[in-house]
Amino acid sequence: MSNFFMKFAVGLVGDSNNTNINIPTLSAGQVLQNGLNIAYFLAGTIAVIVIIVGGIMYATSAGNSGNVSKAKNMLLYSVVGLVIVIAAYAITNFVIVRFNS
Fold first, then answer.
1. What is the pLDDT of residues 66-80, one digit of tens each?
2. Which residue among 21, 28, 37, 53 is least crowded, i.e. fewest CB within 10 A of its CB?
3. Residue 54 φ then ψ, to 5°
4. Which residue range forms the structural domain that includes residue 59?
5. What is the 8-class DSSP label of residue 64?
């Protein structure tokens, strides 16, 4: 692994004695897939945080109907959003794999 970093650093700085450095390149599909995976991870993380906050709000609402409905809406919308993110992940990975083959 350190060999990769050494080659990468030499590639950035430049070495007149060794010009045959192979730095791995990514295809457009791989870059797209990596970017989408990061976006899905962030969206999923936010949805889980909203679920936790909604659960805490529901538990601490003390019977206040306004707070209870607000917490239920937070839970419902975050779960729906999480399902949409999972579906989008499955669909885009299916499409990317089909077109990269």
1. 999 999 999 999 999
2. 28
3. -65, -40
4. 26-100
5. -
Count CA within 13 A, CB hemisphere, residue 32: 11
Residue 14 belongs to a domain: no
| Cα–Cα dist 78/82, whole Å | 6
Q: What is the pTM for the complete model shown?
A: 0.69
- For residues 96 and 35, give the distance between their C-alpha atoms in angstroms, rounded to a whole number: 12
In this predicted model, what pLDDT tens digit does every residue of 6-45 receive, in sequence order?
666 666 655 556 556 676 777 777 888 889 999 999 999 9
- How many structural domains comprise the chain? 1
